[in-house]
Amino acid sequence: MKINLMRQLDWWFGRPTCFLLSLLYDLTGCLRKRKSPVENPKKILFIKLFGLGSIVLTYPAIRAVKETYPSAEIYFLTFEENREICRLLDLASNRNIVTVRAGGIAVLLKEALGAFFLLRKAGVDVVVDFEFFSKMTAIFSLLICRKHRVGFSNRDIPGLRRASFIVHPVPYNHTLHISRSFFTLVESLGIRSDCYHFEVPLISNQDTRTIVLDKLQDAAGFEPAAQKLVLLNCNAGDLISQRKWPLTHFAALAEKVLEAFPNALILFTGAKSERETTERAVRLVPNHGDRVRNIAGWFTIGELVELLSLASVFVTNDSGPAHIAALTPIRTIILFGPETPELYRPISERARCFYADTDCQPCVTVYNGKVSSCKDNTCLQAITPEEVFGEVARALQGEGAQPLGVH
């Protein structure tokens, strides 16, 4: 609902409005001062509305900005459900994380208006828009910031030619990992390229871990000293539905783990809204007794971090939780389909990416607005439970992971 709403707004309102504002901006160009470099910014706004995992991938860029301009006040604009990950990563202080809800057109416009007045009053002098092709965020940047507006804009590519009023346009380079692409934006702020580091912090909170352990022991009967925790995520959010490995494959994997490791406890994770899908996966696992549980909706993002830290291995579709796992010591197995790990692999040496590399991959890119007409994701179906189990077994046996990369 939210994704489709934003895409419709971008198409029917964003495109014509961007065109008219760009035309006006070009016609009045002689009245403006020449573009100047960014020097000692006082207040910087980062915008990333979509993608929990993508927000994690902004960390190297924002970290470099904060280190280069330690006195600058940082703001971050995103959707409400992403507030907690922004707080955990310390992308901005909690009061400077500005969020909007998208429960419908009326709610979205009301929330956007509130964010506009708040940020306009703050007097932001630099906006860095991490969205790839959104016309709406480009318009928002223009309305709240008169000085320096940074964003992706490829003049020769129709889908990425956003607006001429982006003061510091940066061409999108599809050969770079997304975290490195995000970093090219902040280079417009005078950040040196050698400030880029492919790393994210390990996060832990003992109080939160105690809460998670209590939940696991009370509701799932988890015994830390006697059991190995295996986490499976059969969901992939609502952004790209083709990213899901078949539920039958997840069930087959779970069955193999149960047979090979009598002390394994398998927990299927997910958001509250994904509980029904997760339950279908659990029901496909035969004769599992109490060793397979559906815990979708049990934990907040902060609690998920601690849950991942307690587990031995995590198998997940290409989705936000794969990147949250990078904030913990867990061994992670990511199943890639319509997108490529060359661009979207988590920032972690403990991650193992499976990618079939079929002729049609990747079919979801920035250039097609991350929309695919695919109705049969053979790229993910080609990844077998047997080969994934091999890596799970290595993790449960304490063996070293295969080198980070694609399988």
- CATH architectural designation of the largest domain: 3-Layer(aba) Sandwich
Strand content: 5-15%
Domains, number: 2
CATH topological fold name of the largest domain: Rossmann fold
Topology:
Layout (H helix, E strand, L loop, with lengths): L1 H26 L15 E5 L4 H6 L1 H10 L4 E7 L3 H6 L8 E4 L4 H18 L3 E4 L5 H10 L3 E5 L15 E3 L7 H9 L19 H14 L8 E6 L13 H14 L3 E5 L6 H9 L8 E3 L6 H10 L2 E5 L2 H6 L5 E6 L4 H4 L6 E5 L22 H4 L3 H12 L11
Parallel strand pairs: 1-2, 1-4, 2-3, 4-5, 5-6, 7-8, 7-10, 8-9, 10-11, 11-12
Helix pairs in contact: 1-6, 3-7, 8-11, 9-10, 9-15
Structural summary, described in words:
With 407 residues, the chain is of the alpha/beta class. It has 2 domains: 2-195, Glycogen Phosphorylase B (Rossmann fold); 206-396, Glycogen Phosphorylase B (Rossmann fold). It is built from 15 helices and 12 strands. The protein has helices at 2-27, 52-57, 59-68, 83-88, 105-122, 135-144, 178-186, 206-219, 247-260, 275-283, 301-310, 320-325, 341-344, 378-381, 385-396; strands at 43-47, 73-79, 97-100, 126-129, 148-152, 168-170, 228-233, 264-268, 292-294, 313-317, 331-336, 351-355. Strands 3-2-1-4-5-6 form a 6-stranded parallel beta sheet, with helices on both faces. The longest helix is centred in the first third of the chain and has 26 residues, at 2-27. The radius of gyration is 22 Å and the shape is globular. The mean pLDDT is 91.
